[in-house]
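Please, structure for the following, as tokens.
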Amino acid sequence: MEIPAINLKAIVLVHWLLTVWGCMAWLPTSFAWGNFSVLAVGVWAIAHRDSIDAVLMFLIGMAMTILTDIIHFGIYYSLSELASEKGRDVFRFSAGMAILSLLLKPASCFFVYQMYRERGGDYNVNFDLETSVDSRCTTDSADSAFIGRRY
């Protein structure tokens, strides 16, 4: 099964629109700064089609905003109780759009990771300590002093 190709422009545009609507009523400026700065990195990734770093930074930023969005919602959602009857509809719309953005972010991260791989990025974490130690030390200097000695 092949993964459908999603355009990076579509991802940035959808999250920009949902972030604008999410900031209408109740979220603090830190939510806006965090999300819009990550979207600016997304624009950088769109402008530089060959840049692996731009896509990787956009992916990391999207992953980080998942955590910060959850924290913002946990802290500021109780402000809905202070809203007037007229302001509750705006609050519900704003909260719904911000939550929809949060729900779409894992899928967006998946598609951005696929773009990262298509651009030639290969993020392998290797914790093989034996090969890293062996590459710094040669057996000639360490083991040759003990060859032929009898204890």
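The mean pLDDT is 82. Helices lie at 8-22, 29-47, 52-76, 87-118, 129-136, 139-143.
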